[in-house]
Design a protein that fits this description.
Radius of gyration: 17 Å
Shape: globular
CATH architecture of the largest domain: Alpha-Beta Barrel
CATH superfamily of the largest domain: Glycoside hydrolase/deacetylase
Oligomer: single chain
Helix content: 40-55%
Strand content: 5-15%
Structural class: mainly alpha
Order of helices and strands: HHEEHEEHEHHE
Number of helices: 6
Strand order of the largest sheet: 1-6
Length: 163
């Protein structure tokens, strides 16, 4: 996470445990947000302004708790399908099809935990999107809002750093 932040990538919340947020009560949601926000402050020195709910699942309570934490919920409008088990070729075809439709913006969902996404899908996506005239920007740049509520220094590692 620190490496990505230092490289200029936007870091946002995805909550602590990747739970189905719509199945949690307020106290559980507060914990999900607080634990991750605390980790991001310690590791990268930032408090995010955006969050993407796991599985894209949210309800009014999730929106309320996100708002209490100063975070805007963001949802994708394009899914490469990697988390659904699509092959790299199938994900690349999804990008090709999206570029042919040429919507004004594409907010893509990809999962870098899949090696084929890193090695095959993202290079293809970057190439075809740029060739089609898209400018690749962070979510914050796309919507014209700050990426972080606060930016400071990371904390030194100590006994409070627990998973």
């Amino acid at each position: 996470m620190k490496f990505a932040y230092d490289a200029g990538h936007q870091i946002a919340s995805h909550t602590w445990s990747h739970a189905h947020l719509t199945q949690l009560n307020r106290t559980q949601l507060q914990s999900e947000f607080s634990r991750l926000d605390d980790a991001l402050r310690k590791i990268a020195g930032v408090t995010p302004a955006f969050m993407r709910p796991p599985y894209g699942e949210y309800n009014d309570l999730v929106l309320d708790v996100a708002g209490e934490h100063g975070e805007t919920v963001a949802i994708w409008d394009f899914d490469s399908g990697d988390s659904l088990g699509l092959s790299a070729d199938e994900s690349n075809k999804r990008y090709d099809d999206a570029v042919r439709r040429h919507p004004s913006t594409i907010l893509a969902l990809n999962h870098e935990v899949h090696q084929s996404t890193v090695d095959q899908v993202l290079p293809h996506a970057i190439k075809v999107l740029k060739q089609a005239g898209y400018r690749l920007v962070t979510l914050a740049d796309c919507v014209g809002k700050p990426a972080y509520q606060k930016v400071g220094s990371p904390s030194p590692r100590d006994a409070s750093w627990k998973c």
